[in-house]
Amino acid sequence: MSVPPFTVSSMTTPLSAPRFAPHAHEPAPHVGPEVSLSADEARRIALRAQGLLGARDQRAGVRGVLRSLGAVQLDTISVLARSHELVPYARLGAVGRDVVESAYWTETHSFEYWSHAACILPIEEWPHFAFRRRSYRDRPQWHHDLPDGTYETVIKQLRTEGPLTASELGGAKNGGEWWDWSAAKIAVERALMYGEVVCTERRGWKRVYDLAERAIPDALLHDDLPDAECLRRLVAQAGAAMGVATVADLADYHRLKKEQVNAVIAATGLTPVEVKGWDKPAWADPAALALESAGRRERHRTTLLSPFDSLIWDRPRTERIFGFTHRLEAYVPKPKRIHGYFAMPLLTGGRLVGRIDPAREGSTLVARQLSLRGPQDVVPVARALREAAEWVGCDAVRIERVNQPELAAQLATALA
Question: What residues contact 71, with CB distance under 8 A and at least 6 apart?
Answer without folding.
Answer: 115, 116, 119, 120, 121, 241, 253, 254, 310
